[in-house]
Amino acid sequence: MEDMSAIVLEQADRLFAQHIDKKVLSAADAGHWPDAPWRAVEDAGLPSALVPEMKGGAGLTPDVGANLIRRSAFHSVPLPLAETMIANALWTDAGGDVIAGAVTLAPVNPQDRITLVSGAAGTILRGIARHVAWGQQAPTALVLAHDANGKAFLCRVPTAKARSNKTRRNVAYEPREDVDFGGVQLAASDILPAPASLGVDGLMPFGAAIRVQQMIGGMERCMDYALSYANERVQFGRPIAKFQAIQHMLAIAAGHFAAASAAGDALTESPRLGDDALAVAIAKSRCGESAGQVAALCHQVHGAMGFTQEHPLHYATRRLWSWRDEWGAEPWWQDKIGRMICAQGGEGLWPLLVDRPAAAGAA
Amino acid sequence: MRAFRFESLTLPPEADEMRRKVRAFLKEERDKGRYAAHRTSWSTFDPEFSKRAAKAGFIGMIWPKRYGGGEYSNLQRFVMTEEMLAAGAPGGAHWIADRQSGPQILKHGSERARELILPRIAAGECYFGIGMSEPDSGSDLAAARTKADKVEGGWVINGTKIWTSNAHRVHYLIVLARTEPPSENRHAGLSQFIVDTGSEGIEIRPIMNLSGGHEFNEVFFKNCFVPDDMMIGKPGEGWTRVTGELAFERAGPDRFMSDIRLLVELVDKIGREPNERQAVEIGRLAAHFATLRRMSSSIAGLLERGESPVTEAALVKDVGTAFEREVPEAVRKLLPVEASLDDDDEYSQAMAHVLLHAPSFTIRGGTPEILRGMIARGLGLR
Description:
The structure holds two protein chains of two kinds.
Chain A: H1 2-19, H2 22-29, H3 35-43, H4 62-74, H5 81-93, E1 103-106, E2 114-119, E3 122-126, E4 128-133, E5 140-146, E6 152-158, E7 163-166, E8 176-180, E9 185-186, E10 191-193, H6 204-232, E11 234-235, E12 238-239, H7 244-265, H8 277-302, H9 313-323, H10 330-344, H11 349-354, H12 356-359
Parallel strand pairs in A: 1-5, 2-5
Antiparallel strand pairs in A: 2-3, 3-9, 4-8, 5-6, 6-10, 7-8, 11-12
Chain B: H1 13-31, H2 47-55, H3 74-86, H4 92-108, H5 111-122, E1 128-131, E2 147-151, E3 154-162, E4 172-178, E5 190-196, E6 202-208, E7 214-227, E8 231-232, H6 238-250, H7 260-270, H8 276-304, H9 310-331, H10 346-361, H11 368-378
Parallel strand pairs in B: 1-4
Antiparallel strand pairs in B: 2-3, 3-7, 4-5, 5-8, 6-7
């Protein structure tokens, strides 16, 4: 099984490397949907990688899934691949079939709420979701909506039926649209009761779990660039890697990267990435902090060259700056952890973090 | 990049069993009023506590039974250690002997040294200090000038050690000394010795630390005799021995939990309903803490498999001690409490106690500046 995982990851890595180059990335920056890379990941079966085999997916375990997302982020794959993977896992968990094509998730912001309204005209949606990844370009959105009684449903929504209020990009220049689902009519087969794995925070832990794994992949890329550059760039007659100041900067960055990876690994111990809301809160907080530090340190090592379009570092760092903010920036998750700890009192801190089976899913 | 190894570790059932055992022991200790949770627990020297911990089987846990050990796994010991620290237990008397001196003697000491010393450590009756630093040799350990000359039946040590914690109340020091004059290979010609602090020719001068406590000492050796079988390993192996010993001490929970009790007391002081700034900062510190615990447990897993992850251990210590230093700095902004050792308020005392100890966290056991050099080497930069 371990060999199989290694093969899957190696193949995916080769596929990303082959299809994602500077040309594709700058076209994506300009707003073009990377069609050929999407078809390649689709042909490889990656969108349903986390769906159990009996439901038509590859049935990858959470750790292989996490690594797959890390590799896609390492290559700055400008597609909602991770969103599609999680959306298919959730939709099939709710009883649906694998959805064809790219799928985005909504709502993304904890303040946004989408409601389901049943009336004479059938069932319609109401509400606006802000900053939805590829909210126009992904053909389908998996939307978490609540009915009048507060019951949660997953809805399969063709994005063509919704209105995009504003074309907006994050700092990675990936589309993050404000999508108005108001009035979109849904067929009965497009609405399923949300699976039990969606707790009070809805999609937030799942979206954050994706961003955690992406940040880890992105940080690894930054470290790779910075380590190579430090060994190549000569100043004062020797590679800058030989200067203690540079060595210490990169050692600090390596510490941040290792901590982020360890925090992200914790998410692979539950059945689905995102199931353990406390582990997600810890990881999103720790990775977000690391991402900022690693990006800053790696830019500093690259000097002016890293501040250009000529060096590819920015494809990784601009994504880190986006991902740490999306699906709840650090303070949003830290606030949750802090309140959970205070609710238990000082002596509860240690058992809360250590006696995990009791704490899992409690956030 | 060359990835450092921090694989996930699932603790086996026997480790959970050990956790219950340690918690029950500590609860009884507290219920009987035998100790108050100290703020820098493993610096608190309490021989009576050490003897009770030993009786419960928590010292020398992984050693063979014939030397008084419990033949437990590294992971069971890991759990014992973190539970002691989380509860603020005063394990300072036996800490060094249990963590590094004992394992060093077990691995590389003579049979007589093992038989003479290990059972006493495991009984909580024998404590150790570290004789590495010297007045002119701190981070640059290879510059050690203390020398040991061969005589009939042993060695005679002359020189000075400094920053020797607890030298005035431990039974032995492990001393790094030159057994050959310095040569081009700076790491050659060093050896390690187990020195009885009651020997002739040892003079101990106290050095008060900035919190007003007496831990540090300067130790003078004047023709101090050490028998042959109290050398650790062979002559000239000192550098290898000393770096191996440092690996034992670098990645454990004591490298990020020294002041964890301050966080516990902060939470109690704030109460059940924190404001947003308090909740966010407590959450941030807890995320660091939980992550460090994962990294440290992963190293315990590697040690259990017989590996020696020296660079990873250095990395955990660097990240971990940075966290320990950050705790009081972050915490002081969350409540308007002025730190004072004399205040009636326990929290104010705790703040003062931690503030006055914090500078040592990033010095003992190798500074971040030294650790980062090791990490950089691991990254292929030097």
